[in-house]
Amino acid sequence: MTWRGIRLSSDIRSALEQLDRRELREIAKQRKISIPRSWSKTLIVELLALNVSRQDIPTLGTKPRETRIKSNGVPAIIMKDLVKRFEDVTAVDDLNLEIEQGELFSLLGPNGAGKTTTINILSGILEPTEGTAIVAGFDVTKNLEEIREIIGVCPQEAAVFKFLNARENIELFGSLHGVPGKELEERTNTFLELLGLAEASRRMAKGYSGGMLRKLNLMIALISDPQIAFLDEPTVGMDPRARRKTWEFIGSLKDQNKTIILTTHYIEEAEALSDRVGIIDYGRLIELGTPQELVEKYETKNLEQVFLKITGRRILEGI
Fold first, then answer.
1. Which residue segment(s) compose the domain that 292 sits in?
2. Residue 108: inside a domain, yes or no?
3. Residue 256: its pLDDT value, please?
């Protein structure tokens, strides 16, 4: 017996593993099984394998399946006429932008420019007021389950459990994402070493400095080995030495062909890491190009002077 090209054997778990999370949740709904939203696909499969029969699985076969746009030649992220309003405030204003696969792209601008709001739309935290946002071929208004399977998000505020140590935090989030045990241990050890947190990894996070919490936040965001990483001001609160070590770590992600969207108001950070930079102010994309292209176009020495020439203000004003 086959369904959607899948040969269903007596191994129910194997059949379930070939479904995506949306389909698994539909099966759970039909069987009246409650699934926490935070559960990884692995946990859902394990629960369903104990509670469903082979006959439950093909019942989804008549429903159309959302398909991902083929990756070849397709940008990792597409934003078209994107708008986000909060009552009378327009935080993102008619944003049109494409970010290529494997690109390290920086959104550079002052606080309140719309950088975080853009990240929150792309990661499914906020719904756009108008326009379209496509992530890895999936529409953010229709396919959030699929998007969340392939992205990692490092928010501005540290999203960690303060009563756990660094290692416990990383392993907890890795387990929720279904990272296999041995792989999770190896990846955790590697991250802790690369970001200089190995010695402090057994201390509770409540005793960490702001910079240490930012490093931990970054490791948690990347522990699932996402295709696309959204890093929202990842080095805020770090001293210059820690910031440069983190730059090296972020830069190494490009060698893995990951797509990285970085928001920052640090000029050196954007210049050191970015393939391209989008300068954003008052929710609008006001300039786009490689750091070198922008410096040459405006005949300046750095991106700070580019921003000053365009707006008459400095990026760091008010920060």
1. 77-311
2. yes
3. 84
